[in-house]
Amino acid sequence: MGSKSNRSRRYSEEFKRDAVALVRSSGRTVTEVAREIGVSAEGLRNWVKQDTVDRGQGTPGELTSAEREELRRLRRQNREQAETIEVLRKAAVFFAKESDR
């Protein structure tokens, strides 16, 4: 595995869309376009693949960007609710002990 010496950058959705459009319209390889615009070839390849899925042309079972975002949101919500339930459980135990005194 490679080191993370160069911190991964965040690119805007507009930049990603433009990069994918350049790959699709230029007839050049992903590697050539990636080198030209200064991003990793693997990153650009992932953007192109995700765009294909988002267009409904991916393989069955692959998640669209909207579905991925919803899954992230639901997992975060689930984690927060589990934490709330744990706090309430501990509070119930505490107050049950207090009322026994």
From TrEMBL:
<dbReference type="InterPro" id="IPR002514">
    <property type="entry name" value="Transposase_8"/>
</dbReference>
<feature type="region of interest" description="Disordered">
    <location>
        <begin position="50"/>
        <end position="69"/>
    </location>
</feature>
<dbReference type="InterPro" id="IPR009057">
    <property type="entry name" value="Homeodomain-like_sf"/>
</dbReference>
<dbReference type="GO" id="GO:0006313">
    <property type="term" value="P:DNA transposition"/>
</dbReference>
<dbReference type="InterPro" id="IPR051839">
    <property type="entry name" value="RD_transcriptional_regulator"/>
</dbReference>
<dbReference type="GO" id="GO:0004803">
    <property type="term" value="F:transposase activity"/>
</dbReference>
<dbReference type="Pfam" id="PF01527">
    <property type="entry name" value="HTH_Tnp_1"/>
</dbReference>
<protein>
    <submittedName>
        <fullName>Transposase</fullName>
    </submittedName>
</protein>
<dbReference type="GO" id="GO:0003677">
    <property type="term" value="F:DNA binding"/>
</dbReference>
